[in-house]
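Saturday, quiet lab. Running sequence design on the structure tokens for the scaffold JK sent over.
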């Protein structure tokens, strides 16, 4: 049964009652901001004079931060290396007041760090420091146990799979957690990548972007006219209840057993699209857990994704900004 949330105040109050667990690839987003005034004499590249450096939790951790920023009680299960960056990342996540009891530290892993060099408010370069190590059978069991233990103890309403193809999520982990969620009537939402695309069966929501859908289905240049039929066939095959496909500047597609459509993007001053997908899955999952209608879920997620694109770097949604936009566009009173 769909929920009758008719106002932004009801929406805000309902969000504060939710408990959401994020499972997936956590990483560090490192930023170096600077000023560019000349080109290097050594090579045709800009010279960045450093003004400021900052480390932020990224990947699945950024999804958790988005949820936390909306007033949702948030829990995070991910894997870090037993290294300095892993310890620093876990500490940064805790400072955001996000529960990290489901975080697992492994000596076989290296904590992923993505470093963005920003000059004159434009991203000039990204440096990725990462290693892709598969989990062993013992580590799979350890991770699944940590996830289920956290979900049980805190009686979560929803579980988000945040997959970046970095190794935390594999077929064994995915199937183990989905089996638990189904048995306990917990909403499941997926932000997929290519490797595990077909491993997510029997989930409530599946949210690729258009490029990920093309990669997953191995079909290039899917037009907006083709999305509905392809999404419906994929959802039926995978036993997925609902689909969202983000379409960049063309908006967002939504579809479930009863309805489908495309909501156009709102005109924005785009500064940086980094992290927009994290915001969309966070907001959409909350709306889904609150049993809102598919078109309303898509409309609110569409606004949220656009709002964070106006900010430079990977940043969370600001709840008051979201509520104002929802009211402005008459999605809720």
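Result came back. Writing it out in full:
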């Amino acid at each position: 049964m769909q929920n009758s949330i008719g106002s932004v105040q009801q929406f805000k109050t309902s969000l504060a009652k939710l408990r959401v667990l994020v499972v997936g690839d956590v990483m560090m987003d490192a930023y170096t901001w600077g000023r560019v005034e000349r080109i290097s004499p050594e090579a045709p590249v800009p010279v960045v004079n450093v003004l400021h450096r900052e480390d932020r939790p990224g990947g699945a951790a950024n999804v958790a931060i988005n949820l936390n920023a909306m007033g949702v009680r948030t829990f995070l299960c991910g894997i870090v290396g037993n290294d300095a960056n892993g310890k620093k990342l876990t500490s940064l996540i805790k400072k955001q007041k996000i529960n990290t009891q489901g975080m697992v530290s492994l000596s076989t892993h290296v904590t992923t760090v993505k470093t963005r060099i920003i000059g004159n408010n434009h991203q000039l370069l990204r440096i990725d420091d990462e290693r892709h190590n598969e989990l062993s059978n013992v580590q799979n069991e350890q991770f699944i146990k940590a996830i289920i233990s956290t979900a049980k103890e805190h009686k979560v309403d929803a579980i988000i799979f945040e997959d970046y193809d970095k190794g935390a999520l594999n077929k064994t982990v995915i199937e183990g957690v989905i089996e638990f969620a189904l048995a306990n009537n917990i909403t499941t939402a997926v932000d997929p990548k290519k490797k595990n695309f077909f491993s997510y069966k029997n989930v409530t929501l599946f949210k690729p972007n258009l490029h990920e859908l093309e990669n997953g289905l191995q079909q290039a240049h899917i037009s907006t006219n083709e999305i509905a039929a392809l999404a419906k066939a994929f959802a039926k095959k995978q036993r997925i209840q609902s689909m969202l496909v983000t379409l960049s500047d063309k908006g967002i597609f939504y579809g479930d057993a009863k309805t489908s459509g495309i909501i156009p993007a709102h005109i924005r001053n785009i500064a940086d699209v980094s992290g927009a997908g994290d915001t969309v899955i966070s907001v959409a999952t909350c709306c889904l857990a609150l049993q809102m209608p598919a078109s309303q879920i898509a409309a609110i997620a569409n606004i949220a994704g656009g709002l964070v694109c106006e900010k430079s770097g990977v940043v969370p949604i600001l709840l008051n900004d979201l509520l104002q936009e929802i009211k402005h566009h008459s999605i809720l009173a």
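Notes for JK: The mean pLDDT is 93. The domain at 8-27+57-112+131-328 is CATH 3.40.1190.20 (UDP-N-acetylmuramoyl-L-alanine:D-glutamate ligase). Ask whether to fix the surface positions before the next round.
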